[in-house]
Structures are given as C-alpha cells and as structure tokens.
Amino acid sequence: MSDDTRSPIDPAATHAALLAAGAELFAEHGYAATRVRDIAARAGANLAAISYHFGGKQELYMAVLEHEAARMIAQHPLSQPDHADDPVAQLRDVIGGLLGRVLADDERGLIQRLLLREMFSPSEALPLLVERVQKPQFALVLSAVTAVAGPHVPPDRLRLAGLSLVAQCLFYLSARPVVERIVPDVVSAGGRTRLVEHLTDYNLAALQALRAAHAEPGDA
C-alpha cells in the first residue's frame, strides 16, 4: 500500500484559486491570449479542474468578470438608502461611486484592466457582461439622472445624459496616466473629493437646464 501524504483537495479553495489566477492572467494578457493551462498552473490545479468548476475558458472568464465586478460594486455602491428622497445627493452618490471604481487604489487594479480590455477589444463575453452587470448599474445612473431632470424630459435625452455622466467618469480610467502628469492633485485623496463635487455641480446644471427646457405649465 502506498503512503500518499498529499493534502485532500478542497473544491472551494480550488474554485477560488482558479478565479484569482484567471483574473490576473486575463488582466495581463487579455482573453484571447490567455491559455487555460497557464491559469491552472498558476492556481496549482489540474487542467481538468477548469472544466469541472466552470465548464470552459469562456465560462471561467465570465465568472472572473462577475466576481471582480461584484467586489467593485460592493466597495463603491452607486446609491445610498438614506438618500432616496434627495435627488442631488443621489446624483452625488452615483458620481462618487463611479469615480471610486475607476480611481480605486487596488494594488492589482484587476477589474479596471479587465474592463479596459473589454472596451477596446471586446470578447464573446461582452454581451453577458452588459446584461448582467452594466445594464443594472446604468439603471441606477438613469434613476439618479431622472430624479434631477424630472419626468417630462424625453427618455432618449435622459439616456444620453446618463451616458455623458458615465463617460466623464470613465475618462479618468482611460486617461489617468495623462491626468496624473497634467493635474496630479486631481486623483489624490483630496482631489477626488473636489472632483466629485465638480462633476456633481457640472451635471446638476445640465440636468436642471433639461428640466427647465421640458417643463410643463404648472411645474414648480
């Protein structure tokens, strides 16, 4: 009888290790250039473990995106329950949450790098990412925009206003290395607070102008 002293395999630990290894390698090399055997090797797992836990490379990639996105959303939510009756506070929460996500001081920066790769080189997982993550988050943005602009602004204008708000925040993700060299204090801790207030005031003025342009007789 052989004396097998190997530790028993912990399925939960293997699952977590594959997610972590996948996140690192997908962020480093992109979806297409990442090999499943390299993920398994970094995770210290058998190659077959990827199929067992996730079904395949694409499913693992989607699981990585959802896992990292969920962590980011939990750390930087776009809404606060106690601001439900304060449209300006809702707008500030959305902007603060978005900027918190793109400027997060995560030493790995995994979700930021993963999202940048998806924006500039979309994979087959993008439609699922949009449906499961991006659309629900954009609904929160749209809710805050509508609360300020009012019910009479056409839906297409509200959607464009929401996209403009998101784009202003995403600028600091894609252009952060340049911003740090031109206006370095903007992405510092104190600078971020001022940036949230600036973007809140900027978008508030635009949304109030939309509200006034589409006001109906008798509106306050």
Automatic annotation (TrEMBL):
Any GO molecular function: DNA-binding transcription factor activity
UniProt name for this protein: TetR family transcriptional regulator
Family matches, as Pfam families: CecR_C, TetR_N
Keywords: DNA-binding, Transcription, Transcription regulation
Span of domain HTH tetR-type: 12-72
DNA-binding region range list: 35-54
InterPro entries registered for this protein in UniProt: Homeodomain-like_sf, HTH-type_TetR-like_transc_reg, HTH_TetR, Tet_transcr_reg_TetR-rel_C_sf, Tscrpt_reg_YbiH_C
